[in-house]
Write a structure and sequence with these properties.
mainly alpha, two-stranded antiparallel sheet, 6 helices, 59% helix
Length: 171
């Protein structure tokens, strides 16, 4: 991109850019974060199994899949996160010897898998998870650099658009 500006018009260009850039950059941050959510949802559908014999994907009820959200943290900072209560355990796993998950949560998982959600079986599964742990899926972590590039692309496009707009307005 090339902008022609005489030295005497430089101050006017700077003022126009200062007017236009913050709004365009904020919109770009929101658009970049919003564009990350479908990437995370697709990665959730294709996540590696939690165990060697488990199915691909981190989708039983669909709640984890639907819980990907973006939000504005501060004026120049956005976050893309999963708001499911158990998201940390899906993402990072559970260490062997850690506290087992609630039996009720295992019963719900069994029901979504089409298994009979008996309390005794759910207790055994929860205890096994507590003893052996569960491997993390690392869904967000594997996409971190890709999401950062996506947000940067949106910001670069916004900066270029603001510069073009300021150059046209300062003429």
């Amino acid at each position: 991109m090339k902008i022609k500006c005489s030295p005497r018009d430089l101050g006017k260009l700077e003022r126009k850019l200062a007017e236009k850039f913050p709004a365009k950059a904020q919109a770009a941050l929101r658009a970049g974060a919003r564009a990350c959510v479908p990437l995370l949802q697709e990665a959730t559908r294709n996540a590696r199994p939690a165990s060697a014999s488990g199915p691909r994907g981190a989708v039983a009820s669909g709640a984890f899949l639907r819980a990907w959200r973006w939000r504005i943290v501060r004026k120049w900072q956005v976050a893309v996160e999963n708001t499911a209560t158990y998201a940390r355990f899906v993402e990072e796993g559970r260490q062997p010897g850690a506290r087992p998950p609630p039996v009720r949560a295992i019963q719900q998982w069994m029901a979504h898998r089409g298994l009979a959600p008996s309390r005794a079986t759910a207790y055994l599964i929860a205890r096994s998870i507590g003893l052996r742990g569960v491997r993390g899926r690392f869904i967000a972590n594997t996409l971190r650099s890709r999401m950062t590039k996506l947000v940067h692309q949106h910001l670069t496009a916004a900066a270029n658009a603001a510069l073009d707009s300021a150059a046209r307005a300062s003429r």
